[in-house]
Amino acid sequence: MKILILGGMGFLGPHFVELATARQHTVTLFNRTWVSQEFLLANGVSPWTELPLWVADDPEHAGFSRVSNARAVSIGLYCRPFADTAGDTLNWARTVADSHKWGAGLDAEKEKRLLAAWKQRQSWPASAPAAR
Predict the structure, then answer these.
(1) What is the per-residue pLDDT for 88?
(2) Which of 22, 53, 95, 103 has its CA 20 to 30 A from that of 37?
(3) Residue 17 CB coordination number (10 Å)
(4) Are 30 and 6 in contact, with CB atoms under 8 Å apart?
(5) CA 119, CA 126: separation in Å to the nearest integer?
(6) Measuring CA to CA, which residue among 25, 23, 60 is closest to residue 41?
(7) Which are the contacts of 32, defined by CB distance < 8 A and separation ≥ 6?
């Protein structure tokens, strides 16, 4: 069985990895690294296209994604359940050729370079920013 472990370097992650590998499962770890906006911009990361759903916190983007949909909902807007959207998207993605070049997201090599540069300048692990 293939298993994805979120936060595999955290408190419980190593124990889950050990148990899964002992049972002959294939394990993939997913760990987040918080990086400052200043670092991203200074290193030429394009908001929204290279890091989808991220826009710079600056006057140009003030209020981005902070618009209420309450009025639209009150007159009938219906949002599909997230599980339906995620499932349909995954099913569609499975039909795309392996050679397809996706138009959004960081190139894997650029991501590796950025993470290495961030780790060199920060104490590791970097802590998450305070909630607003």
Answers:
(1) 93
(2) 103
(3) 17
(4) yes
(5) 8
(6) 60
(7) 7, 128
